[in-house]
């Protein structure tokens, strides 16, 4: 029943759109066709359910609702209150969190909200206290000047970008690398694994206010109990950014010391990666931070996206089903198959394997840069993204790695054997690709030559698998 409902709902929606701007309807149809026809291995992407997607396309989009549940700066927010309260309740239940703030529009926004709540709670400053106590008028221009310096010069310790950390964890081009006095911890040069003793030594020396754990390109689990111990020893606040692996936490693949929620003071996440919800962000906090997290709007956010908060509630309800736990376990199992598939074919993996949803392939053994590998794979319909490897000799633009993730294809129903085949196809492309030369005849880091017929062969083989596991199987557009 739902298949035909979904098919007619989308077909009719596209007709409505086409009556205004047919090129947008056409691009939307084409996007579905393209997504159906490519091997999506981008580790940060997924396919949300039709229920989640449809929830985003309603009149909740039209409502302004600055403020918090029951305390809005606009009239007529009673239905937004229902939606936001439900999304927060599902989030608290799903993650066992004391407090959930579902307004952030993205992962970056969620991190800004968390940073502010930590500054507001932890910086010791008489000016800050006056500001918080609403005695703002007592602050002179000179007080504000001091306060700006105090707030903007706090210490943050995060994982370095080339070890797998995220831009928002103190990387210079991001605001976090400018407003904070930042230092980074990396991974062990031999094993490429997190070295907790080295993190602790750095924390003791640097004494950060904020310690950030979490990653975008580290193919291993993190022991958050240990990270909290380190933070406590040096008086730091532990913030865990689980944007990438929230689905594995929700699906109870990461439990105990690997579950960040009971260990971190504050947890931030996106909702659209392994968690398989709408594009958005969220903050989970221990009670003491809740009041300042709630000031996310107007501190760094404008009005909440009520239609997306509604879709978050739907996605969290889905993630509370036993079927989501089975999905999350398959995501991790499939990553193991993919890694095995590479290792048995002689490829090199950062850290030598995986125990989450990410596989980081070091393509230097194929004589390629990440940029060349990414482009050659795309020619064969394999969608990945290039990524630095630890101490990358090619820098952050060309890189030496390709990052792969299993959440999206697992949603399509790919299993052990298919992921082994995916490894086979990727190796087939890469061993048959050679670097090109620049116009001046020098070796290029960007151009490449794929052997004759390779892209066609791989495209055909992946099409067979994609046909067997269709995306949105019941959805037929008229
Ligand atoms: C993806 C990601 C973000 C940013 O999320 P956006 O929604 O793109 O802003 C932040 N932190 C980590 C660790 C991420 O992986």
From TrEMBL:
Q: Does the keyword Transferase apply?
A: yes
Q: Which SUPFAM superfamilies match?
A: PLP-dependent transferases
**Which domain of life does the UniProt lineage start with?**
Bacteria
Tell me which residues bear N6-(pyridoxal phosphate)lysine. 273
Q: Where (6S)-5,6,7,8-tetrahydrofolate is bound, by residue?
A: 161, 165-167, 287
Indicate yes or no for the key word Transferase. yes
Q: What pathway annotation does it carry? A: One-carbon metabolism; tetrahydrofolate interconversion; Amino-acid biosynthesis; glycine biosynthesis; glycine from L-serine: step 1/1
Which GO MF terms does the UniProt record name?
glycine hydroxymethyltransferase activity
Q: Which NCBIfam families match?
A: PRK00011.1, PRK13580.1
Q: What does this protein do?
A: Catalyzes the reversible interconversion of serine and glycine with tetrahydrofolate (THF) serving as the one-carbon carrier. This reaction serves as the major source of one-carbon groups required for the biosynthesis of purines, thymidylate, methionine, and other important biomolecules. Also exhibits THF-independent aldolase activity toward beta-hydroxyamino acids, producing glycine and aldehydes, via a retro-aldol mechanism.
Q: How does it assemble?
A: Homodimer.
What protein name applies here?
Serine hydroxymethyltransferase
């Amino acid at each position: 029943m739902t298949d035909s409902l979904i098919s007619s709902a989308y077909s009719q929606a596209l007709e409505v759109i086409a009556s205004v701007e047919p090129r947008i309807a056409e691009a939307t149809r084409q996007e579905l066709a393209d997504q159906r026809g490519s091997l999506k291995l981008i580790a940060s992407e997924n396919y949300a359910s039709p229920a989640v997607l449809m929830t985003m396309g309603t009149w909740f989009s039209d409502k302004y609702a600055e403020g918090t549940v029951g305390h809005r700066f606009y009239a007529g927010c009673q239905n937004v209150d229902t939606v936001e309260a439900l999304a927060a309740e599902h989030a608290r239940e799903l993650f066992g969190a004391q407090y959930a703030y579902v307004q952030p529009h993205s992962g970056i926004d969620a991190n800004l909200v968390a940073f502010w709540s930590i500054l507001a709670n932890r910086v010791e400053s008489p000016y800050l206290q006056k500001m918080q106590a609403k005695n703002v008028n007592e602050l002179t221009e000179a007080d504000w000047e001091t306060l700006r310096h105090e707030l903007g010069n706090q210490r943050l310790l995060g994982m370095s970008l080339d070890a797998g950390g995220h831009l928002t964890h103190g990387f210079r081009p991001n605001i976090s690398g400018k407003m904070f006095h930042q230092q980074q911890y990396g991974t062990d040069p031999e094993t490429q694994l997190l070295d907790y003793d080295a993190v602790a030594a750095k924390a003791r020396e640097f004494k950060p206010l904020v310690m950030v754990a979490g990653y975008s390109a580290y193919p291993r689990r993190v022991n958050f109990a240990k990270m909290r111990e380190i933070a406590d020893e040096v008086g730091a606040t532990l913030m865990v950014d689980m944007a990438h692996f929230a689905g594995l936490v929700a699906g109870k693949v990461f439990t105990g010391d690997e579950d960040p929620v009971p260990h971190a003071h504050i947890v931030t996440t996106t909702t659209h990666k392994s968690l398989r919800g709408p594009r958005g962000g969220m903050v989970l906090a221990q009670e003491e931070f809740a009041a300042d997290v709630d000031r996310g709007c107007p501190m760094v956010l404008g009005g909440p996206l009520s239609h997306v908060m509604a879709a978050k509630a739907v996605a969290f309800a889905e993630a509370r089903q036993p079927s989501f736990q089975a999905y999350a376990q398959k995501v991790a199992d499939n990553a193991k198959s993919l890694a095995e598939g590479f290792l048995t074919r002689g490829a090199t993996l950062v850290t030598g394997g995986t125990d989450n949803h990410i596989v980081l392939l070091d393509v230097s053994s194929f004589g390629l840069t990440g940029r060349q590998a990414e482009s050659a794979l795309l020619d064969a319909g394999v969608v990945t993204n290039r990524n630095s490897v630890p101490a990358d000799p090619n820098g952050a633009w060309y890189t030496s790695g390709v990052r792969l993730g299993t959440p999206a294809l697992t949603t399509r129903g790919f299993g052990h054997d298919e992921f082994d085949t995916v490894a086979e196809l990727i190796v087939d492309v890469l061993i048959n690709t050679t670097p090109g030369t620049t116009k001046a005849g020098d070796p290029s880091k960007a151009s490449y030559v794929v052997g004759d017929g390779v892209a066609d062969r791989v495209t055909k083989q992946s099409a067979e698998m994609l046909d067997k596991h269709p995306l949105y199987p019941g959805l037929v557009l008229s």
